[in-house]
Design brief:
heterodimer, A: 3 helices, 4% strand, flat, B: 484 residues, Amidase signature (AS) enzymes, 11 strands, 13% strand, ATP-binding (chain A)
């Protein structure tokens, strides 16, 4: 399952990363080395094995349904790159 | 004062041999004078530290002695600290002043700890050499041409150089244990879910765990005692009673069954590293422990499984860094997509971007079953191997790292080679087990570490094993020549 420049460009778009054309060659080489190592997984016989997501397989604990989060707007807006009138500011989305 | 352990400093404060302010000033002066050689701190919080020290002195005067009253601690810069920059070693968060404090840090503060500052680390904890930090590499105090390991490289280096007497770290694939080994200090990764992850910047959420690094097992027990416990704010933080780690330290080892997995001593392992770990086990045998051969056949697949699961989780976790709400934003974005893409590409370093791409690829349509699901099935095999072994033995032991500290730049251009630095530590994260690394001597003048792995919630037991070892040896007391 080799990765070429086209795959790099597609995956980079999915991850919202900008990868310049002159970078994709070297990057796909590196990613192929990593995936080559990862391909050792194909040796394992896992046909009867269930996937494991949590080592202790505990279920999610429940807590009381009550408001615990304080209003933090005045704490989080000052650290935003841009904000106005209590909102985060981004470039125009709708013309 | 800097040659003393946290446990000794605690006794000194209680006996009023020195004040918390004097202690904090001493370490702040040392950081100021010597950290230029190491780069182990990203931010030093002198003013806040002195204020906390003064509060500790008042508490001591009033007879209020808590677990960590007046003891200076350096926190890894992955823990959010309100009002203090929390960079995670990344340009992305170079301007990020956290609006709240991580539970682990808050708990230590509630026990009287003094925060000295925030330590350097691999960017977003992705690395084994501390070379991926936006703030430049940390240098190993035993040889400043060498790496301190990673990702908690700053934490381990500042301890070894006696610039701080205690530190916190996080461990996703070995990030506490490997740097502890490479710097000659003790580091513990607790059971997954033992310490709250709230306010700890996420890398791979099913693997990440916070823990202490210290000059001894006793010091790690002291810090873990403060850090551990259930937290409503982290739904994966388990509601299990916290053990009496300090009380468990002195137990005898008579009858202790130590499992020696053959996979931790592969044919191609450096003989000096293998001998070093075997020598540590012989010391424990003298104290009544028995060595038992065991096998963990599936752990040979732990590095490949990890390099699917960890990047997959990272690609999801790191999607929050989008240049909109906090952190880095590119100049003059032409539209929203340009803002996302350029902010992320300029804000993240090369290794972080590689892992996001690997993770995104592994989770993308058509590859999910072949990579992610398969890696999770292998994860179960690995966990089951450990479960079988723990039916026969109490702890497992072997070398922490296949090598001592390597030269800066030696692996920086070869990610796969770098990933192998964690070949003995990664399986423990996949299984969610607690494990520590303790200093066990020197190979060619550089520290080597031995790993002790316990069953779930057996932190007390592995700290006990390391403490008994440290009662009989003095490797953990050695200080790098230049930092005496």
């Amino acid at each position: 399952m080799a990765i070429d420049s086209q795959v790099v460009a597609r995956v980079a778009h999915l991850a919202r990363l900008r990868v310049d054309d002159d970078e994709t060659g070297a990057l796909s080489e590196r990613l192929n080395e990593i995936l080559g190592m990862v391909d050792q997984l194909q040796q394992a016989d896992v046909s009867d094995v269930e996937p494991l997501a949590h080592p202790l397989e505990v279920s999610q604990p429940l807590r009381d349904d009550r408001v615990t989060e304080p209003d933090v707007r005045d704490k989080v807006l000052p650290i935003a790159p841009a904000s106005e009138e209590g909102c985060f500011l981004v470039p125009r989305v709708i013309e | 004062m800097h040659d003393k352990t946290l446990t000794e400093l605690k006794a000194g404060l209680q006996a009023k041999d020195f004040s918390a302010r004097e202690l904090t000033e001493h370490f702040l002066d040392r950081v100021q004078a010597r950290d230029g050689e190491l780069n182990s701190f990203v931010t030093v919080t002198g003013e806040q530290a002195l204020a906390q020290a003064d509060a500790a002195d008042q508490a001591i005067a009033a007879g209020d002695h808590r677990l960590l009253t007046g003891l200076p601690i350096a926190h890894k810069d992955i823990f959010c600290t309100e009002g203090v920059r929390t960079s995670c070693g990344s340009r992305m968060l170079d301007n990020f002043v956290a609006p709240y404090t991580a539970t682990a840090v808050e708990r230590m503060a509630a026990q009287g700890a003094v925060m000295l500052g925030k330590t350097n680390m691999d960017e977003f904890a992705m690395g084994s050499s501390n070379e991926t930090s936006f703030y430049g590499p940390v240098r190993n105090p035993w040889d400043t041409e060498r790496v301190p390991g990673g990702s908690s490289g700053g934490a381990a280096a500042c301890l070894a150089a006696r610039l701080a007497p205690g530190a916190t770290g996080t461990d996703t694939g070995g990030s506490i244990r490997q740097p502890a080994a490479l710097n000659g200090v003790t580091g513990l990764k607790p059971t997954y879910g033992r310490v709250s992850r709230w306010g700890m910047i996420a890398f791979a959420s099913s693997l990440d765990q916070a823990g202490p690094l210290g000059l001894s097992a006793a010091d790690c027990a002291l810090m873990l005692q403060a850090m551990a416990g259930h937290d409503d704010k982290d739904s994966t933080c388990l509601d299990e009673p916290v053990g009496d780690y300090l009380g468990a330290l002195d137990q005898g080892l008579d009858g202790l069954r130590i499992g020696v997995p053959e996979e931790f001593f592969p044919d191609d392992l450096d003989g000096a590293i293998a001998d070093n770990a075997r020598e540590a086990m012989r010391e424990l045998e003298k104290q009544g422990a028995k060595l038992v051969k065991v096998s963990l056949p599936s752990i040979k697949l732990s590095v490949p499984a990890y390099y699917v699961i960890a990047p997959a989780e990272a690609s999801s976790n790191l999607s929050r860094f989008d240049g909109v709400r906090f952190g880095y934003r590119c100049e003059d974005p032409k539209d929203l997509e340009d803002l996302y893409k350029r902010s992320r590409s300029e804000g993240f370093g090369a290794e972080v971007k590689r892992r996001i791409l690997v993770g995104t690829y592994a989770l993308s349509a058509g590859y999910y079953d072949a990579y992610y699901k398969r890696a999770q099935r292998v994860r179960r095999l690995i966990r089951d191997d450990f479960a079988r072994a723990f039916k026969e033995v109490d702890v497992l032991m072997g070398p922490t790292s296949p090598e001592t500290a390597f030269k800066l730049g030696a692996k920086a251009d070869d990610p796969v080679k770098m990933y192998m630095a964690d070949v003995f530590t990664i399986a423990v994260n996949l299984a969610g087990l607690p494990a520590l690394s303790m200093p066990s001597g020197f190979v060619d003048g550089l520290p080597a570490g031995t790993q002790v792995i316990g069953n779930y919630f057996q932190e007390g037991r592995i700290l006990n094993v390391a403490h008994r070892y440290q009662m009989a040896t003095d490797w953990h007391q050695r200080i790098p020549g230049a930092f005496q």
